[in-house]
Structure prediction request, 361 residues.
Amino acid sequence: MHNNTFDVEADGEPALHIDDLDSNGELDIAFATFSGGGVRVGYYEDIESSPVTLQSTVFDTPSDPMLVDCDCDVTLRSADIVTTELSERIPDAEVQTSQAIALLPLADNGGPTPTQLPDANSVLLGKTQTAPTVPNDQRGVPRPSGPGSDIGAVQRVSGSVALKTDVTVTEGDDVVIPVVRTGSSGFVFELATDVELTTEDGTAKTGVDFTGQGGTVSFAGESAVLDPAQQDGVLTIPTLARSGAQGDRSFTVSIVSTTNGAVNGEPKMVTVTIQDSDSGANANANANANAGAGAGANANASAASNATANQGADGAKPHTNLARTGDDGAAAGFVAGAVLLLLGIGAVMVARARRSALNRQ
Prediction:
């Protein structure tokens, strides 16, 4: 019998009667909630022994929660049992008051049948010390896969918490670490939870490269179903700007603990990388300076080369402004022909002047 809720009048009568259990039968009760009355088991008279197993069950009853109607040898195995009354058959049960157990009234808390939720301060929360044999509760809510599930038929929804991804920032900026709480689809976050986080130095040192040593991110309980069943929070860590080139540095942030049974999901640790703004600026400045020096050197070399070339041309050929469509011999012939043409024109003009003077006489 798994994931059952029994809520009866607290009149001392058992809530569950099991009769005629024989030696071939085994009674297994796990993750059950008994309120008002416990269990009574009856056996055949000729039975010699029969095993009974109780696990992660709560009995809020006014009398002994486990009664056996026979003089036979009953082998009872139990683990993580909480009762309000001492029991001869369950000597290792933890005895608590009804106020500490703090079961809420029977109600529709989701799922196919009414259930009794433990209060947010109940000692039942996260009480199971071993991995549950029943993965989901009476409503279908998943139980934690390891130690820490609630005792009784109901697992209060506190969800699982996890970090998201590694973070990179420039020194002087704030580091923002996302933290997410994931619940069960279709159910409200019935419990608030606090997530404690801590930092661990790497090449980045607290007080030198960043401030603080962690912090707490709080998630509130909800009164309505969230779709998706997720809450988001952040942890902010300031970083310190340092003068001079330091290079990139890193540290880690990890989940240390949670409250109200919230499970640690994955990843539980992320790495923060702080980028050095000074080394980047210096690298750019040096690159620009080198580029400028190289450009100047190239310009000077080009100017010097052009000057040398011009000096060489001017020295070899002083009349560089002359057209040089052909070779130098053709240019010399062109110059000589032009001189002779000018002399011929001058002689003709002198002859014409003399004849004009004779005619006037």
